[in-house]
Specification:
It contains three helices and six strands. The chain has one domain: Roll (Nuclear Transport Factor 2, Chain: A), CATH 3.10.450.50. It has a six-stranded mixed β-sheet with strand order 2-1-6-5-4-3, covered by helices on one side. It is of the alpha+beta class. It starts with a helix and ends in a 5-residue tail after the last strand. This is Ketosteroid isomerase. GO terms for molecular function: isomerase activity. It holds the Pfam family SnoaL_2. InterPro entries: NTF2-like_dom_sf (IPR032710), SnoaL-like (IPR037401). Keywords: Isomerase.
Length: 119
């Protein structure tokens, strides 16, 4: 099960990098819940869809350093580059902890840190 969940997450992330938000959302449960620690919580696929429409106006670029799977959980560690509100490319480091239910992503706890620009 854990290896299958890793493959599902890899497939979902590949969809995002192609700008296929609906392909990504097909991997989520209807009641998926995303918590960005210290920021906000999105409840349900429609809330995630609205978030993705604004946050991912251009597909983000992922570099996954590690995927760790056990039971119903997959943890992804890596970097993501995406445009900020002003259209500038911004880099983040992240640790996403996904909980799967019935072969779909049901919950995300995202720990995201914006990297400071080099001077």
């Amino acid at each position: 099960m854990a290896e299958n969940n890793k493959k599902i997450l890899e497939m979902a992330n590949a969809a995002i990098t192609k700008g296929d938000n609906e392909g990504f959302l097909a991997c989520c449960t209807d009641d998926t819940e995303w918590t960005f620690i210290g920021d906000k919580t999105l409840k349900g696929k429609d809330a995630v869809r609205r978030y993705m429409a604004t946050a991912y106006k251009e597909p983000p670029k992922f570099m996954v350093a590690n995927l760790i799977a056990e039971g119903d959980f997959v943890t992804a560690l890596g970097n993501i580059t995406m445009k900020d509100e002003d259209g500038r490319e911004t880099q983040y480091e992240y640790c996403d902890v996904w909980r799967f239910r019935d072969g779909k992503m049901a919950e995300l706890k995202a720990f995201v840190i914006r990297l400071q620009a080099a001077n």
